[in-house]
Design a protein that fits this description.
single chain; 928 residues; binds adenosine-3',5'-cyclic-monophosphate; 33 helices; Beta-Lactamase; 4 domains; 8% strand; five-stranded parallel sheet; Rossmann fold; disordered N terminus
Length: 928
């Protein structure tokens, strides 16, 4: 990076300028005396280091002594490059003090090497000077010096005069690159060149802190000093909000009593936008005698541990090394990230393999050409995607050369396609090729060839159909016996064909009777029903209860009790929005709030059972909901507090933690849709999805709709036994919101926007009703899983968007079996407990028992979960995963399924049995 070849116009001018910048700049700086000599008109030149200026370094390297500063560029006694006759011409030299044990070595190393850096170690205080070759085409051959200290002009964030010898690409004048790029075989890219900012986290401003601060100032860093973790996080958060950043964070790690450096580092590393921030820990010297403290710091995300010192020179040198070896590469990586993006979006097909032809990288055009998803391409042998023999490219034992010819590519599910393939080997480490770059082209160079290849459901960009195309031939991920349903199978099922009793056994017919109720309704589909195993009473019980409407339980007993325990109107007035403390532990946890592994139970605990308020505000902030609704944060906060207060804490499952969990999943899905460039939701739709998720089970009584109908509850009467709970959730959401200006998050929307927002929210909440589960799934698959491109028209686009949003909230609502295992088990515990309570009450009140198998005395939790996953979750998750591309959903689901199977085989049945198998952490959570 950055070793741009130089053009040296003539030796005389080079010599004349050799030492112009060699003056000492500070007590500890080591000026180099340099000379540049042209060899036979060649563009390369040597840097001559005078032997007289060298002294032995304690580490075995050679240090440079103070120069005379008179610009003398004599070649006499040159340590590295000899006399300047050209015989010892050093093209560019890398001197590693660890390698250069003596002067002979030193000479050996310094001759004939072509690296672009000279590294010099100085005695005592380790001085690390990096000297790049002189540059310049103006006839003023440049040469100079670098120094590790002083208030000179070698400020990393600033361009230097072209007369000075550049230290890093950042120090070079821009025009140097413009001049020299043409000379490069592989053009380099410039990293960004910001003014570097450092954040010092020191408990107090003692002499160590001062030395660090002075060193930073010496290197022209902007320094901010904070004295606590809270202050540090606050500063970082503010800087993030103002699009600033700290490149370097130095934490005082000398005493964990004063500052918990490990914790601070971990928090920073997990904070958005800080994966490339350089974190340094200043440690006691004694820490270096054992590795445990330092390893813990490094594991927490610290890049380097340095020993405390009050010596400014040592600090300065250490900092210089950090600037060169960590911060600058981080800057370079940020540019590489941009290159990756460019490569990924390129129309041309680019594929990279390692030296044994295993695929390492494929861009989006490759996916299109091969009609495969990235996870089907990456790490596969290249031979898998070629019909042609590849021995021409790489034969065992033969050196790999460039290739240019016609090869036939194997497109998934299709005939081979002959392609013009160009292969360029690249050596990234050493001289043998480590990678091969493949560039495919259609013979004849037809530009838009790939666009003409059949892709699943290709549609105009910008329409919902142009989002990620799925192959729907998803592979089996685990070999745990969980059947992976091909979505093709789902799509091939006759849609809009109600289930009939043909070919059914008596048992199956009985089961189907149970679902006929909902099948009678218009537009219901049931592509999966015939697969229900009637020998599994728990599954049929659960699935039957979930999928059927309440009217099958017609033997209602009269009851005057309403299950809804509290009137909504009384609550509104009494609710004062909870005060949200800027608690650092909560803030730290919320940093992960878009991760699929997010620990909602921990949030429940540390927010004192207000997870929805905290998570909700975080989601609203992250998705710009305040701006989208044109509403103050306080109104949103008050709205969330009221919504949360209307969830029943006494429910084990349907409480505000479940609402927060669904909102979190919704946020994760929206993020993934955005990351995948699937422009399927605008900001308003995102906001509506989050609001629907937050409110979707509000005022849930902890009893099912069937129970409410069977018990003649007021709600069942109100909603005529139809979609009782979901109707109530939607209605009460709007009643509460519109009933109080202080929480009316919609008050600034214009009429039309409000109307559309209301309709979206209601539709999403109603979609969580399970009786229409298969209808929603089948419609979703019919739109997103088919092979045929759909006509682009605004009306059908809107309909498709509705299907997508319904599926999004449905998956979020029942995603618990696809979460990390400890969470999945806790959710299973909570839902089972709620079902048990319902059965208890049904028995007690002599009501029909909706799910007799969910009796706490006899229920097998693993069996219920196996049934739930097999019948409800599995196909939906595959369909959704194929659309959204979050393989972790499937992976977790598979793992959890296997675990439930294992428990089942081991005879672990009751809730108590299952909980006894859990590690202490899970048990602890359960005891709450
Ligand atoms: N892990 C689970 N096991 C069994 N049933 C579940 C599980 N998770 C969710 N459900 C059911 O799926 C339903 C989805 O809609 P509800 O949230 O109204 O109620 C939910 C529960 O009845």
């Amino acid at each position: 990076m950055g070793c741009s070849p130089s053009t040296l116009p003539n030796s005389a001018s080079a010599n004349a300028n050799a030492n112009t910048n060699a003056g000492p700049t500070a007590a500890n700086s080591v000026p180099l005396s340099l000379d540049a000599t042209e060899k036979d008109g060649s563009r390369l030149f040597c840097i001559k280091l005078r032997r007289s200026r060298l002294r032995r370094c304690s580490c075995g390297g050679v240090a440079l002594q103070q120069g005379d500063g008179n610009g003398n560029g004599s070649t006499a006694g040159s340590a590295t490059c000899g006399s300047g006759t050209g015989d010892n011409l050093c093209h560019q030299v890398l001197l590693n003090p660890l390698q250069a044990k003596n002067e002979a070595d030193y000479e050996k190393l310094s001759t004939g090497k072509k690296d672009s850096i000279v590294t010099v170690a100085a005695l005592g205080n380790f001085t690390h000077s990096v000297v790049r070759r002189a540059t310049g085409s103006t006839g003023t051959g440049t040469s100079g010096t670098s120094s590790s200290g002083g208030g000179g002009n070698n400020r990393p964030g600033h361009r230097k005069s072209s007369l000075a010898l550049a230290l890093t690409p950042e120090d070079d004048p821009m025009d140097v690159y413009q001049r020299n790029l043409m000379d490069l075989k592989y053009p380099t890219v410039l990293p960004p060149n910001p003014q570097l900012k450092a954040l010092l986290v020191f408990h107090k401003s003692d002499s160590i802190c001062e030395a660090v601060a002075s060193a930073c100032q010496r290197h022209q860093l902007d320094v901010t000093l904070v004295k606590s973790k809270e202050e540090a996080l606050d500063t970082l958060q503010k800087s993030y909000a103002t699009a600033q950043c700290y490149h370097l964070i130095i934490i005082d790690a000398r005493s964990s009593k004063n500052l918990d450096a490990e914790h601070i580092a971990r928090t920073i590393r997990h904070t958005h936008g800080h994966h490339l921030t350089t974190i340094i820990a200043v440690c006691k010297k004694s820490f270096f005698e054992k590795d445990d403290v330092l390893i813990a710091l490094l594991d927490a995300g610290v890049n380097r541990c340095v020993a405390e010192t009050t010596n400014l020179a040592m600090c300065s040198v250490e900092l210089k090394q950090i600037l060169h070896s960590i911060i600058r590469p981080h800057n370079v990586m940020s540019t590489q990230q941009a290159l990756y993006t460019a490569l990924h979006r390129l129309k041309e097909v680019v594929l990279i393999t390692d030296d044994v032809l295993r695929i390492q990288y494929a861009n989006r055009a490759t996916e299109r050409l091969l009609n495969m998803r990235l996870d089907e391409i990456i790490s596969k042998p290249l031979a898998d995607i070629f019909v042609s023999d590849l021995s021409t490219i790489s034969e065992q034992g033969k050196s790999i050369k460039e290739f240019d010819g016609i090869l036939t590519v194997r497109r998934k599910n299709q005939e081979g396609i002959p392609m013009h393939v160009r292969v360029v080997p690249v050596a990234c480490i050493g001289s043998a090729p480590t990678h091969l770059i493949f560039n495919f082209d259609v013979p004849g160079g037809q530009m838009d060839f790939i666009a003409t290849l059949p892709q699943p459901k290709e549609a105009p960009r910008g329409s919902l159909h142009s989002v990620r195309r799925c192959s729907f031939d998803v592979r089996s991920i685990a070999s745990d016996g969980l059947r992976r349903t091909s979505l093709a199978k789902l799509t091939s099922l006759p849609l809009e064909a109600p289930i009939t009793k043909e070919n059914c056994s008596a048992d199956e017919a009985r089961l189907i009777d149970k679902v006929l109720e909902f099948l009678k309704r218009e537009g219901l589909y049931s592509p999966q029903m015939k697969e229900i195993r009637t020998d599994d009473p728990i599954a049929t019980d659960l699935i039957g209860a979930l999928l059927t409407g309440p009217s099958v339980y017609s033997s209602r007993r009269s009851s005057n009790d309403s299950i809804i325990r509290t009137g909504s109107s009384t609550r509104t007035a009494t609710i004062v929005p909870a005060k949200m403390k800027a608690n650092p532990i909560i803030m730290e946890l919320l940093e992960e709030s878009l991760s699929w592994d997010f620990d909602i139970f921990k949030l429940e605990e540390i927010t004192d059972y207000h997870p929805l308020l905290y998570l909700g505000m975080e989601m609203f902030r992250r998705f710009d909901v305040f701006a989208t609704l044109n509403i103050e944060e306080n109104v949103c906060k008050a709205w969330l507090a009221v919504i949360e207060a209307h969830y029943h804490k006494s429910n084990t499952y349907h409480n505000s933690t479940h609402a927060a969990d669904v909102m979190q999943a919704t946020g994760a899905f929206i993020t993934q849709l955005t990351n995948k460039d699937m422009m399927v939701m605008d900001r308003m739709e995102e906001a509506m999805a989050l609001i629907a998720a937050a409110a979707h089970d509000i005022d849930h009584p902890g009893r099912s709709s069937a129970f409410l109908c069977n018990s003649n509850s007021a709600l069942a009467i109100l909603y005529n036994d139809l979609t009782v709970l979901e109707n109530h959730h939607a209605a009460i959401t709007f009643k509460l919101t519109l009933g109080d200006d202080k929480i009316n998050i919609f008050k600034n929307l214009d009429k039309e926007t409000y109307k559309s927002a209301r309709s979206t929210i209601i539709d999403m909440i109603l979609a969580t009703e399970m009786t229409r589960h298969f209808e929603h799934l089948a419609k979703f698959v019919s739109v997103f899983g088919g092979e045929e491109p759909r006509e682009h028209n605004p009306q059908s686009d809107e309909e498709t968007a509705i299907l997508m949003r319904r599926m999004l909230i449905k998956v979020a609502d029942v995603s618990n079996p696809a979460r990390p295992m400890q969470f999945c088990i806790e959710w299973a515990r909570r839902i089972a407990e709620e079902y048990f309570m319902q059965t208890d009450e049904e028995k007690q009140r002599h009501l029909p028992i909706v799910m007799p198998m969910f009796d706490r005395a006899t229920c097998s939790i693993p069996k219920s979960q196996i049934g739930f996953i097999e019948y409800i979750i599995q196909d939906m998750m595959h369909a959704w995963e194929s659309f959204i591309d979050m393989p972790q959903l499937i992976t977790y689901m598979q793992i959890n399924y296997s675990q439930w199977k294992k428990y089942d085989e081991q005879g672990v049945n009751t809730l108590a049995d299952v909980m006894a198998m859990q590690p202490p952490m899970v048990k602890l959570a359960n005891s709450k």
